[in-house]
Every structure is written in C-alpha cells, then in structure tokens.
Amino acid sequence: MLNFCTLFDANYLTRGLALYRSLQANCNSFRLYVYCFDETVREILAELALPNLVTVSLAEFENQELLSVKQDRTRGEYCWTCTAHTIRDALSRFNLPEITYLDADLFFFADPGLLMEEFRRSGGSILITENRYTPRYDQSAASGKYCVQFMTFVADQRGRAALDWWCDRTLEWCYNRQEDGKFGDQQYLDDWTDRFEGVHVLQHLGGGTAPWNIQQYKVGTGPSVNAVPIVFYHFHNLAWCADDSFMLDRYRLTTATLDVIYRPYIAVLRDQLSEVQKLRPGFTKGMVTLPAGKKPFWQAFEHKLKGKFHVIR
Q1: Distance in angstroms (rounded) separating the CA atoms of residues 289 and 231
Q2: Contact 249, 212 (CB under 8 A)
Q3: What percentage of the chain has pLDDT greater than the value 90?
Q4: Pairing relation of β-strands 2-8 and 30-36?
Q5: Do 259 and 223 meet the contact criterion of CB atoms below 8 Å apart?
Q6: Is 200 a residue whose pLDDT tops 60?
Q7: Whole-number average pLDDT of the chain
Q8: How far apart are the C-alpha atoms of 190 and 281, rounded to whole Å?
Q9: What is the per-residue pLDDT across 232-269, written as a single tens digit (0 to 9) for each?
Q10: CB-side exposure of 275: number of CA atoms within 13 Å?
Q11: pTM of the model
Q12: What is the CATH class of 2-238?
C-alpha cells in the first residue's frame, strides 16, 4: 500500500481528479488523502465516493497555529504554508508508517512504485526531488534547487525531525517572494542533505519531469525521456481557458512533448470536468475567463509575444 496526500480547492478539482485517475491506472495498491481547501471539493468528492480516496476538511485540519497566520497570507501562500502540515497531520491522523506528498497538478504515466523502490534501497527517511532545470530556465537562485512536488516522509525519528522543522519554518515565513534565501515553502529544502540525516534525492529520470526541464531529453512514446519511462509529469502553469483551449507557460516544448505528454493529460482533464458537471451543471472552477471580445488567434499571438509559446485546442 502506497499512501499519498495532496491539497486543493475547487479551482484545482479537475486536476486533483486527474491525479487520482492516474494513480488508479498505474498503482495496484494506494490510498490518496485529499485535504479539501473548500466545501465544494469536500462535497463533490463525497458524492463521487471514489475508492481509495479519503477526504479531510479544513474544519478537521486547521489548528490555532495555522489560523493565526492565515489572514496574513494570500490563498496561494496559505496553501504553501499548509503543505508540510498536511503531511504531518496525515501521518498522525491515520497512523501511517510513511506518506508521500503530491502536488495536485502532477499526473502519473507509470507506477510510482518504481520511485519508491529506489527510495527503499537508499535506506532514507526523506525523499526529495530536484528541479533539474534546463540551463536557460534555471531559477535555482530564486526558487530553490528542489521542488515541493513529490516528497516522502517516513514516520521515524529522522523523518519527523525534518518535517517538524519544516512546519515551524513555514509558520514563521511563507510568502510568494524571494527574501533572505527563502521562497515560499520550497527554498527551505536547499540545505536538507546537509541539515538532516536520511535525505535521499531522487535519481530516477522519469520522476520530476516538468516544463522547465523537459528540453534536456529526447521525448518518446510511452511516454519516455531518453528511453526511460516517465513516471510523473508536473503540469505547472497549464491554463485552461473558458473557450476550452489550453495555454502553456513560457517554456519551449516540442511537438512530441505536446503529443505524448500534454494531449493525453488534457483528455483526462476534460473527462473529469464532464464527471463533475454531471453533479454540478455549469461547473467551470479553475478555467480562465478571457476578456470580452478576445479571439483565440489574437490571444495566442499576444501570449507568444509575452514569451508563451503554445496554445492547445
């Protein structure tokens, strides 16, 4: 049994459901604990009654420490603040031996057990993943070397020590800006291989593929990178427009990347929206509304001028 946790609100519901479906398709035995950051998510997931998915509401999760900083942070910053706390809460609430945190916009193309096997062999208690930036997109100085996207914590002394430290730090400071070597909840991880014992940095090439590093690899069917199966891809900054087109961020992506990675994911997103709309007709949370009169061609042209290179319809 692999245990995972994630958090999202209604704006990420279709992505969270796509994440769940990808686990369902690729993982023989798992449980996904979803921390619902609004009542819409909790209610819809309750109605869907998906197997191996467990929900935790904000009312159940939030404590006085978190509530004391909530008003000082944007919605996104508060989600970042809560990431470490959801991991710790899940370990304790469900008495788990270990858990892996997943960003809601991840999608699995292969069995995550492949990554966990590497982690087991390392003998570690904490698993972290590098951004592995393509040089032209290197944001290590501003955003950190590691990505809070796929992180495992074992409920032993080493794992809890790192997790407790991280929880304390995000309560103290967690903002969407670079300041004194900090950025959100993420740059705190930069020195973990020195600060804590039992930290393993994922080596599998198919774990942590993302728009900021995919340019380094030959993308093939499967999908794969350099003939290694992609286990998960991070669909960062994929904007779903109200006209049902998808705008990608500024990263240059090949036609192969769009065809074997993005288009299959988009098909699953559309399927999940259809499922949600059966329960909530007219549901469009998470979709970007275009300005009145904006035409798709000019929208695509404008975004290309700003450095955004792809629109998928």
Answers
A1: 32
A2: no
A3: 88
A4: parallel
A5: no
A6: yes
A7: 94
A8: 44
A9: 999 999 999 988 989 887 899 999 999 999 999 999 99
A10: 19
A11: 0.94
A12: alpha beta
What is the Cα–Cα distance from 268 to 9, expressed in whole angstroms?
19
Distance CA 163, CA 287 (A): 34
Amino acid 203 reads: Q
> Which residue matches tokens 């035995």?
29
Q: Which of 169-173, 214-218, 221-225, 302-306 has the lowest mean pLDDT?
A: 302-306
Q: Given a cut of 70, is residue 56 above it in pLDDT?
A: yes
